């Protein structure tokens, strides 16, 4: 489960490039299979560890959200501060269907979440892609805050207090998804489908055009590509996946509030992608795991810092970690790992 860039980790100069790609592909999916196996085994051997299963569920939902953002930022080159809009729209779509319309259908809740987020991405993306650079970034931020303001003040959405609700009853193969572990496995399945689906998209001609837009949009326009159309499709696809993440989170927590639309969530997912390594799906997943796990670790700390504890200053600690990575590992954790492997191999070849 890795990008073709991981070839550097297994390259053999004695082999032709095509053979190296095949080897890299096999190793990537081998490691991916081991990760999936670990995700499946963990709740089976630690069924009493509800905290760990809860944390893994949060990480996987965050990873889905990060994957959606990496599609438009890492692969299309669009620095957006509005990704939380689609995450929040998905959360409200799933949550309000149950709480306000009293339609307790699990599948319908997720479908509504994806549909509303996709429509929102289509509308907001239609206006946003007509700008570029800092204007694009500020427009996405402004549109996101507009939605946040509406949700924060509108009674139908629960205003600033949000809306609690009961997770819809749904059984899969006779197992109720109201239980923590079955719901966790469902989230694992959604994560795998999103990862594989985006891998196919990125390796397709469409994905190659997105990379071309990221690297040099003017050149892609000059050779005849309607880059706005490609960016809009990427926006909608990323919005749909973000809506799925938002819907899963709402159904997981049994609560939906205006904060899910806050631009701070867009900043958080940006940090995940940058820390993990933008332009690599694996990096998005690693970044989500790193941020959520470190946040959980720090928030549970009782280490004193003056009149406060480390938990009271967890945002400061996370900010310092982010600064260190920006300064010393600008390509993120995945990029740092590749660089280390490359240097070890070069050192071995020189011996």
Task: Provide a descriptive summary of the structure in words.
The chain has two domains: 1-45; 49-264, no CATH class. The chain is built from twelve helices and six strands. It has helices spanning 17-45, 50-73, 83-99, 106-128, 133-153, 180-203, 205-222, 227-253, 263-276, 281-299, 314-328, 332-350, and strands spanning 163-164, 171-172, 175-176, 255-256, 304-305, 308-309. The strands form three sheets. Strands 1-4 form a two-stranded antiparallel sheet. A two-stranded antiparallel sheet has the order 2-3. The radius of gyration is 21 Å and the shape is globular. The chain starts with 16 loop residues before the first helix and ends with a helix. The relative contact order is 0.16.
Write the layout of secondary structure elements.
Elements: H1 17-45, H2 50-73, H3 83-99, H4 106-128, H5 133-153, E1 163-164, E2 171-172, E3 175-176, H6 180-203, H7 205-222, H8 227-253, E4 255-256, H9 263-276, H10 281-299, E5 304-305, E6 308-309, H11 314-328, H12 332-350
Antiparallel strand pairs: 1-4, 2-3, 5-6
Helix pairs in contact: 1-6, 2-6, 2-8, 2-9, 2-10, 3-4, 3-8, 4-8, 6-7, 7-8, 9-10, 9-12, 10-11, 10-12
In short:
Helices cover 71% and strands 3% of the residues.
Q: What is the strand arrangement across the widest sheet?
A: 1-4
The residue-averaged pLDDT reads 88
Helix content: over 70%
Number of helix segments? 12
**Proportion in β-strands:** under 5%
The unreliable regions are 1-11
The number of distinct β-strands equals 6
Radius of gyration: 21 Å
The helix/strand class is mainly alpha
The largest sheet is: 2 strands, antiparallel
Can you tell me the number of structural domains?
2
- Taken from the alpha-carbon principal axes, the silhouette is globular
Order of helices and strands: HHHHHEEEHHHEHHEEHH
Question: Between the first and last Cα atoms, what is the distance in angstroms?
Answer: 32 Å
């Amino acid at each position: 489960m890795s990008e073709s860039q991981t070839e550097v980790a297994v390259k053999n100069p004695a082999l032709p490039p095509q053979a190296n790609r095949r080897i890299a592909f096999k190793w990537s999916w081998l490691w991916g299979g081991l990760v999936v196996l670990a995700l499946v085994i963990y709740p089976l051997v630690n069924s009493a560890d509800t905290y760990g299963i809860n944390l893994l569920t949060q990480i996987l939902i965050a990873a889905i959200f990060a994957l959606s953002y990496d599609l438009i930022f890492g692969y299309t080159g669009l620095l957006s501060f509005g990704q939380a809009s689609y995450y929040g729209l998905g959360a409200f779509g799933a949550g309000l269907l149950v709480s306000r319309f009293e339609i307790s259908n699990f599948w319908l809740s997720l479908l509504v979440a994806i549909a509303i987020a996709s429509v929102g991405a289509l509308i907001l993306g239609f206006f946003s892609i007509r700008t570029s650079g800092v204007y694009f970034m500020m427009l996405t931020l402004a549109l996101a805050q507009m939605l946040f303001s509406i949700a924060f003040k509108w009674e139908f959405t629960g205003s600033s207090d949000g809306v609690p609700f009961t997770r819809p009853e749904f059984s899969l193969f006779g197992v109720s998804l109201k239980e923590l572990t079955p719901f966790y496995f469902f989230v694992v399945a959604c994560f795998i489908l999103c990862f594989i689906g985006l891998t196919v998209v990125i390796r397709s001609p469409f994905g190659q055009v997105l990379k071309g837009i990221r690297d040099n949009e003017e050149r892609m326009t000059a050779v005849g590509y309607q880059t706005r159309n490609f960016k809009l499709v990427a926006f909608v696809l990323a919005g749909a996946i973000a809506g799925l993440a938002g819907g899963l989170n709402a159904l997981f927590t049994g609560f939906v509030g205006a904060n899910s639309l806050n631009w701070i969530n867009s900043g958080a997912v940006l940090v995940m992608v940058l820390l993990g390594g933008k332009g690599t799906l694996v990096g998005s997943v690693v970044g989500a795991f790193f941020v959520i796990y470190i946040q959980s670790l720090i928030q549970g700390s009782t280490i004193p810092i003056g009149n406060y504890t480390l938990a009271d200053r967890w945002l400061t600690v996370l900010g310092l970690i982010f600064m260190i990575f920006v300064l010393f590992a600008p390509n993120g954790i995945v990029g740092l790992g590749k660089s280390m492997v490359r240097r070890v191999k070069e050192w071995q070849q020189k011996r």
